């Protein structure tokens, strides 16, 4: 087994499930063990690196190889994963069969992170690269992109970024953004034997949901972006009421609105507020919980040219495309950083019950990243 495959497997064997707003319930949740492992691996190869706190006990790891020019090019991939509940393969054993590595995070995105780490170690052994290279192993991508946001607070100027996500080693220059909104309706509780003494918050929310369904249908009729498709809206969760025999005094939903390039989170929030404004009353609330901009990088940008050349030299292919999902690249894009999303694996395998990745793709990703770092 190659050094890269061993590193990849070791990271899959370290659970790092994102607790999604809760305190980590045990060692399998949070990024603590992963961030410690990444820090030790990099520093053991003489690479300057340090932890950066994102949330209590949940750190980014920032590594740097100084080049001949600044500002740096940033390579970013996340430490956390989604839950392992319901998996049909052992989530943390890193089983390898027929050239595939199975387990939670194998595809999303410990393979790309391992490839970035190995590429950085190779570059650190030679002459200084043309531009300083910074590796960000980021916490909290799967919930609020907290790690990327924390890094960018202190990073200073960034020349360009490469975001490690499963793209089948294709160069992605555009993807959707995400606005997530919590809508709360409030009523007055009463005994269910005499419901007219209260105000049913769930009934009021039902009208909100119906209005949002109609708005989602109208969104589907808007002009699509040529690379990422059209904007969407979905109500994903609903919670309300305390007991079946109590008129509910509160109901909450979470709304997921995907943005295409040219839209802004503020504009999308205004549309939602206008759609349901006539239904809401005093005490109700519409509150964004995530505001991520869409990504679109010009095909003539230097990072696109550099990435395309590296992929072409390693794989013989040259495909530029857009995707519907969003990444930590949203936060770099919001700050005007040109970027590409580029990584091993297929997004179709991310978050799945039998998550896997072709090890050959991870090896090729390391070669591609190294070529980009060396310019």
Question: What descriptive keywords fit this protein?
Answer:
31% helix, 375 residues, Aminopeptidase, globular, single chain, alpha/beta
What this model shows, in words?
The protein is α/β, with parallel strands linked by helices and 375 residues long. It has two domains: 3-174 and 294-374, Aminopeptidase; 177-292, Alpha-Beta Plaits (2-Layer Sandwich). It is built from nine helices and 16 strands. It has helices spanning 3-12, 32-43, 106-124, 146-154, 201-219, 265-276, 302-315, 329-334, 359-374; strands at 48-55, 58-65, 73-78, 95-97, 100-102, 133-138, 160-163, 171-175, 177-186, 232-240, 250-259, 285-292, 295-296, 320-323, 339-341, 356-358. The strands form four sheets. The protein has a six-stranded mixed sheet. A four-stranded antiparallel sheet has the order 10-11-9-12. A three-stranded antiparallel sheet has the order 4-5-16. A hairpin with a 2-residue loop joins strand 1 (48-55) and strand 2 (58-65).
């Amino acid at each position: 087994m190659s050094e890269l495959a061993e590193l990849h497997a070791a990271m899959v064997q370290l659970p790092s499930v994102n607790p999604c707003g809760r305190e980590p319930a045990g060692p399998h949740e949070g990024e603590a063990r992963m961030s410690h492992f990444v820090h030790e691996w990099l520093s053991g190869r003489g690479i300057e690196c340090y932890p950066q706190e994102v949330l209590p006990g949940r750190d980014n790891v920032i590594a740097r190889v100084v080049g001949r020019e600044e500002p740096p090019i940033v390579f970013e991939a996340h430490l956390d994963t989604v839950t392992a509940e319901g998996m049909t393969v052992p989530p943390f054993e890193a089983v390898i069969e027929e050239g595939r590595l199975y387990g939670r995070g194998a595809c999303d995105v410990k393979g790309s992170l391992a490839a970035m780490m190995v590429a950085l170690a190779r570059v650190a052994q030679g002459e200084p690269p043309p531009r300083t290279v910074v590796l960000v192993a980021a916490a909290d991508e799967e919930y609020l992109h907290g790690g990327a946001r924390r890094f960018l607070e202190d990073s200073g100027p960034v020349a360009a970024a490469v975001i490690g996500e499963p793209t089948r080693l294709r160069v992605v220059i555009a993807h959707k953004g995400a606005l997530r909104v919590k809508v709360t309706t409030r009523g007055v509780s009463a005994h269910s034997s005499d419901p007219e003494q209260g105000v049913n918050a769930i009934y009021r929310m039902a009208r909100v949901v119906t209005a949002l369904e109609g708005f989602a249908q109208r969104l589907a009729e808007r002009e699509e972006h040529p690379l990422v498709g059209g904007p969407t809206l979905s109500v994903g969760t609903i919670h309300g009421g305390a007991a079946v025999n109590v008129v509910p005094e509160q109901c909450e939903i979470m709304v997921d609105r995907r943005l295409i390039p040219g839209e802004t989170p503020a504009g999308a929030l205004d549309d939602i507020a206008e759609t349901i404004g006539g239904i809401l009353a005093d005490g109700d609330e519409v509150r964004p919980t995530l505001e991520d901009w869409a990504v679109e990088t010009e095909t003539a940008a230097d990072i696109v040219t550099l990435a395309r050349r590296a992929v072409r030299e390693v794989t013989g292919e040259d495909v530029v495309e857009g995707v519907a999902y969003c990444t930590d690249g949203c936060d770099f894009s919001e700050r005007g950083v040109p970027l590409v999303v580029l990584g091993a694996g297929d997004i179709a395998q991310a978050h799945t019950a039998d998550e896997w990745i072709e090890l050959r793709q991870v090896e090729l990703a390391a070669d591609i990243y190294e070529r980009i770092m060396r310019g």
